[in-house]
Amino acid sequence: MAQEIVNIDDSIYIYRSLKEASLHPEKVFRLHLNKAKLDSFPPEILTFTNLTDLDLSKNRLEEIPPGIGNLVNLKRLNLANNKLVHLPPEIGRLKNLEFLGLNRNVLEDLPSTISGLQSLEVFELWDNELQDVPDEISELSNLKVLELRGILFTPEQMQRIDSLVVKSARVLMSPGCDCKN
After folding, report:
1. How far apart are the C-alpha atoms of 40 and 93, rounded to whole Å?
2. Per DSSP, which regions of the chain are E strands?
3. Contact indicator for 167, 145 with CB cutoff of 8 Å
4. CA–CA distance, 147 with 150 (Å, rounded to integer)
5. Which residues lie below 8 Å from residue 14, measured CB to CB, with a gap of 6+?
6. pLDDT number for residue 3
7. pTM score, whole prediction
8. Contact call for residues 49 and 69 (beta carbons, < 8 A)
9. pLDDT at 11
10. What is the dihedral of CA 72, 95, 84, 104, to 10 degrees?
11. Minimal CA–CA distance to 136: which of 87, 180, 181?
């Protein structure tokens, strides 16, 4: 007796190979290339316009291309554990993004365009090299968690950040630092 082919709901299937995903770009909703030893952002990813979940964590990425802003259906973007120093301003075009994982990078700043992330609920930035956060973080009205532990902020900066973030959000920070620059 022949085996029946199970019809998998494309939106829940997780592609773990760029080669496999490239065969049916319109069916790629979830792509997990974590621990794939990537040194650069694969341009093919930008052809997966239906992507809702992209995990590129635990790689060696140093930059994200401006084209990331064209993946407007993204709800989850995990770029944790890479070597990112800056984000392109186009990241602010991801209006449906609910989760942005940027922990364990070497981010020095955030673009003011993060104000465009109107659906963002969880913003993980712990263990980066941020000097401050932009005032535009105050525009993230759906934010529930802002994770900033492992970043040395002065007590004054911590107070400022706390005052900017929507009151219903949990802001997690390490104890203040009285360090001199």
Report:
1. 21
2. 14-15, 30-32, 53-55, 76-78, 99-101, 122-124, 145-147, 170-172
3. no
4. 9
5. 30, 31, 32, 53
6. 40
7. 0.91
8. no
9. 82
10. -120
11. 87
Task: Give the alpha-carbon dihedral of 176, 81, 30, 6, to 10 degrees.
Answer: -120
Question: What amino acid occupies position 149?
Answer: R
- Rounded CA separation 45/67 (Å): 10
Q: Name residues of the chain where pLDDT drops below 70.
A: 1-8, 176-181
Task: Quote the tokens at residue 48.
Answer: 């997966």
Q: Find where tokens 């969880």 sit.
A: 122
- Residues 73-79: contacts with CB under 8 Å, at least 24 apart: 73/49, 75/99, 75/119, 76/52, 77/101, 78/34, 78/54, 79/105
Q: What CA–CA distance (Å, rounded) separates 55 from 172?
A: 23
- Mind listing the pLDDT tens digit for each residue in 54-97? 999 999 999 999 999 999 999 999 999 999 999 999 999 999 99
Handedness of CA 48, 49, 54, 58 (dihedral sign): positive
Q: Name all contacts of 159-168 with Cβ < 8 Å and 24+ positions apart.
A: 161/133, 161/137, 164/133, 164/135, 164/137, 164/138, 165/137, 165/138, 165/140, 166/138, 166/140, 166/141, 166/142, 168/144
